[in-house]
Amino acid sequence: MTIARYVKSLASFGTRNVSTVTKTLSERQKSVVEASLTLIRERARLKAELVRASGGAIPSSCLLGVPLGHNSSFLQGPAFAPPRIREAIWCGSTNSTTETGKDLVDPCILTDVGDVPIQEMRDCGIGDELLMKAIGDSVKLVMSEPPLRPLILGGDHSITYPVVKAITEQLGGPVDILHFDAHPDIYHAFEGNIYSHASSFARIMEGGHARRLLQVGVRSINKEGREQIKRFGVELFEMRKFHTDREFLENLELGAGVKGVYISIDCDCLDPAFAPGVSHLEPGGLSFRDVMNILQNLKGDIVGGDVVEFNPQRDTADGMTAMVAAKFVRELTAKLSK
For a pLDDT cut of 70, what percent of the chain falls above it? Predict the structure, then answer.
């Protein structure tokens, strides 16, 4: 049973009426779903009004936290990441300006609609299929309030599937995806879970949500992963060949002929020396500046992005990886906001 069957009128985001829910869920579940979506919708409406009143921007980055960690195959700590990333974004140890000179205190550059209440929905028995739809519907609510564009704080990498699906449905066509990761996350169903964080890009490619998928920084991949990459025509850039691929990657132009570019950054794309606070430590990764050189030189219309797989439970005492994740968010904001 999909959430589309129990949320009849959610497509009409512009109305003030919350979706009509069928009898397939308990009254408690109905109330939690309706309240969750209402929360995001009203916050998005207020933030968009603030941006428009401040002079407008086309587009403007909008943070949406998705504290989901139970689809992790090893540790579930990424569920605790969104508040830690926000704390680091506004940490007094640095200023609020991005490397390209955009000031995050300007609401035309960055706003925040808070978190999708994942745990509250899980507590009342809502399973993964409905959770994924609720995440996607939350993204659509943000996008329905121009000029906001979604910048997602994960959470584990399973959230990228519903986010990308929602963006492409809202825009009416596929996107190009630039994906930084130590792993391709393209198993058909890792450990039998089709919503595993290790299977998110299989769902994206099966659904036709990406024209091109470029995966950068991969250094942990098995036979199934390579077969899936071949099956879906993924453009794989492994760390063992990064020295020869660098020039190409630092001169990317994506999104022409499709609805734009989506950027997904798994914090374990970095070498553990730069980001020890991740669940899967894979030596031999990218440096932070490697990622920035690719990101800042990228040409294309960025329609959304995410930073995922930061695990605060494995971070250093001084929050080193939290600051790295926050820096990713800050610089993605600079690419999204104009």
Answer: 93
